[in-house]
Amino acid sequence: MYHHNSNIKLPEDTETIVWKYLDLSKFLDLLLSQKLFMSRSDKFEDQYEGTFSEPTYEEIKKLAIDNPDFINYYKTHREKVAISSWHINEYESFAMWQIFTQNSEGLAIQSTIGRLQKALQPENNFKQYIGEVNYIDYKKEYIPFDDLFFPFLFKRKSFQYEREVRIITDVSDSENNTKLNEGLKISVDINQLIEKIYIHPKSENWYKNLVIELVKQLGFDFTIEKSDLESDILI
């Protein structure tokens, strides 16, 4: 169920286009289970993920002198938060294809902020939020930590090109003390979540046909686009 939190920034315009680049096996898993996989926040590649900037850390160390549980609380909180990353862009991105898909097989899901909000299902029982990541200088800038989400919505400036939007699921309040292990799968309305699919620009025709066939066999009818980056060489 989508919650609004006033400290979390999001583009005003719900029509803002977002993308998720993924490989075929993750995509199939999404369609077959009708659940979106969310990665546990401390399992990301970026080892700074969910950590503090230096000025913030100095501040927190002072607080922690009187209250040693404070830092522990944040460490364990990271194990209770799962994240699904999306990327704001009006168009598909050549760089994102390269970073997030291997060997010219992969897909991009195109959605919008409004669709993400509507796709989250009420039966998820967890607190879920959607927020835009702030990119800051970790050496100099201070992260306000009056909010439990702050570690998950700040990244170093060198990641600015990602223009990331995150669906954040917090299971810390859930009754049955949910264990996250690698992550969590949450129910989503696939037809809301996916507006269009783009197939990797360098993929072979058999692969494109396979994706089209799979989507049809599974009974979905979202638009499947050929990548705009595909070269129709006009000479």
Number of helices: 7
**How many domain units?**
1
Taking pLDDT < 50 over at least 5 consecutive residues as the criterion, the unreliable ranges are none
* Overall 3D shape: globular
* Mean pLDDT, all residues: 83
SSE pattern: EHEHHEHEHEEEEEHEHE
Q: Give the radius of gyration.
A: 19 Å
Q: Percentage of helical residues?
A: 25-40%
Head-to-tail CA distance between termini? 52 Å
Question: Beta-strand percentage?
Answer: 15-25%
- Structural class of the secondary structure composition? alpha+beta
Instruction: Report the strand count.
Output: 11
Main β sheet profile = 9 strands, mixed
Tell me briefly what this model is.
This is DUF2971 domain-containing protein. The protein is built from 7 helices and 11 strands.
